Fold this protein.
Amino acid sequence: MFIALSILFFENLAKQRENASYLCRSITVITLPEAKTQKPRILIVEDEKEIADTLIYALSSEGFEPTWLSRSQPALKELAEKSYDFGIFDIGLPDGNGFELLKKLRASGSDIPVLFLTARNEEIDRIVGLEIGADDYVVKPFSPREVVARVKVILKRVATTSASISAPTEQTSEGIKPIFEHRPEQRTIFYQHIALDLTRAEYALLAYLMEQPGRVFSRRQLIEAIWSNNHPSDDRAIDTHIKTLRSKLKTQNPHQEFITTHRGFGYSLTV
């Protein structure tokens, strides 16, 4: 009896092992492909190959996808045909300059962030670049790591600018209506249903002031909110953007001063 039970036990054990072996042979392991993350695409327009190579290496090492062109005309065509997330433009180019390239780019409706590279540390160059819609600038010679850091900060700011904003309102005969309307998804601010033609910096500045109407912001606070904490401009760089923004607002309502200067302190949005 004991021997019969032992034989039966080992027969069952052998069958279980055989079934397990069959199941193992029948199982197919499927490895799902990893989700691909789109790398931010950056167009470098620089006529000096050594500088371009340095930037390409630094940006590629940080997960960006850089493309290099040495002339402004091919760059303008490239930007019209392909999508880019960021532009790094040298001011001095063989077939033009970075200022003209950016002007044409903005005229075409593109609002990609742009950082200028310049060999001249002249204040007028910095002001002109910012006035026509540049987001930042770096003076040669520069650290590639600093350029990459600035690119990251600007892209992060652009991504977070679309946060919801409570717009100032006014009381009318038809009830309470917003003076300004911010549509983050369109990167557009409206004044009484009229879209304001703003540069990127002016847009970011007005949107930031709209977050807390009446609050006085220092120049440094505005600079850090619009650009980055290590922006090379002095605090008065914001004055240029305040001036142009005021001018554009006055074309809509010449009888009201929306941005108030608080001498020794800064600026506020007054409604």
Observations:
- Residues 2-26 form the longest helix (25 residues).
- The radius of gyration is 29 Å.
- Residues 2-10, 20-36, 162-177 have pLDDT under 50 and may be disordered.
